Amino acid sequence: MISRRAVLRGSASTAVAMAAGIVAAGSGATSASAASAGPRAVPTTLAANRGRLASRTVVTAPKLPLTHLSVAHTGESAAVRLRTAAGWGQWRELGGCAGGRDGSPAAGYRSSVVVAAGATAYEVQAKDGSTVSTVELNTVDGPLRTVAAPVRNALPLPSGATLPFYLSRGTWDADESLRFAADGSEVWPGQFIPVQTLTVHHTGLTEHNGDPDPAATVRAIYYDQCVLQGWGDIGYHLLIDEQGRVYEGRYSGSDAIPVYGSALGDDRRPLMVNAAHVGGFNAGNVGVCLLGRFSTGQPTAAAHRSLVLVLAALSALGRLNPTARTTYVNPLSGVSGEVNVISGHRDWASIGADPTECPGDAFYPYLGKLRREVAALYR
């Protein structure tokens, strides 16, 4: 597989579980994954790399049946439209965010994963004349790969609260082999860091809801970020679909709780695994991503409810004040600046991150109310 960059250039576990009691006390407070007890078969993601295309290109014969399309562009803006049995659809502006691992060189492009189930052709356009590249993806029909039994972890929630459903990596069929190089080494070993901030994202995919297979989309995002962008894993810690289901993102180990490792920091708080959702500002920053694009519409009530619950749980575990501002300091690079404890992705541009619309022009103004809702539940 050609990389996108080449185209465009024990006891500690118990302690963490005890720390989870801060928010998980009470019966029914934890939503466990529905993972099976034994090995399971997961579909191998099929990928066909089209490479560099002209600034406006029509592809009438995809190399494989599409479920998703990964589109990268070097300029400021790009768009795509799909043809299905009903004909050509509307142009979709691409909302790729500037993620990436801390300390890695800038990719020089932005990447978006488009839901393309049923598409028989597609057209891409880079409006400023820059180059684009596409990788055609199918995350459901590939050969089945037998993997080990998934880790049975759970998401701690405020007392008495429940999620509609929680899916561990094994439950949404993450192909864990993608995280390893040919020599068996882990591409991106986890670094565990105290939590300072929480950041809300949207994927910038389907506007605003309506994904027919969200788990397949999570697998497509995983493949795009882990393999095509070369990060070694998915860049978000948690993802939420329109039904309010929560998906485990970045791998954090075999302990009982996602996002965190098995050890505690000097202040007895659990340590988060470093991820790749705000380039240059990831260390100490937990990323929670809504599936969808919210530039003109809002998340569903179910997604909003789960987002509040998740942010309240993370705030309690990290002993964070959801309505406060804080001086964030990246412990790996030393970069710092004042931000909200709960921020939208775009807020990080004020202290040096690349600008972005994320988490959407329509949803972003509600973040102030969201912080108050999280604080009320936390109390």
UniProtKB/TrEMBL annotation:
<dbReference type="Pfam" id="PF01510">
    <property type="entry name" value="Amidase_2"/>
</dbReference>
<dbReference type="GO" id="GO:0008270">
    <property type="term" value="F:zinc ion binding"/>
</dbReference>
<dbReference type="InterPro" id="IPR036505">
    <property type="entry name" value="Amidase/PGRP_sf"/>
</dbReference>
<comment type="similarity">
    <text>Belongs to the N-acetylmuramoyl-L-alanine amidase 2 family.</text>
</comment>
<feature type="domain" description="Peptidoglycan recognition protein family">
    <location>
        <begin position="164"/>
        <end position="333"/>
    </location>
</feature>
<dbReference type="GO" id="GO:0008745">
    <property type="term" value="F:N-acetylmuramoyl-L-alanine amidase activity"/>
</dbReference>
<dbReference type="InterPro" id="IPR002502">
    <property type="entry name" value="Amidase_domain"/>
</dbReference>
<dbReference type="InterPro" id="IPR006619">
    <property type="entry name" value="PGRP_domain_met/bac"/>
</dbReference>
<dbReference type="InterPro" id="IPR015510">
    <property type="entry name" value="PGRP"/>
</dbReference>
<dbReference type="InterPro" id="IPR006311">
    <property type="entry name" value="TAT_signal"/>
</dbReference>
<dbReference type="GO" id="GO:0009253">
    <property type="term" value="P:peptidoglycan catabolic process"/>
</dbReference>
<keyword id="KW-0732">Signal</keyword>
<protein>
    <submittedName>
        <fullName>N-acetylmuramoyl-L-alanine amidase</fullName>
    </submittedName>
</protein>
<feature type="signal peptide">
    <location>
        <begin position="1"/>
        <end position="19"/>
    </location>
</feature>
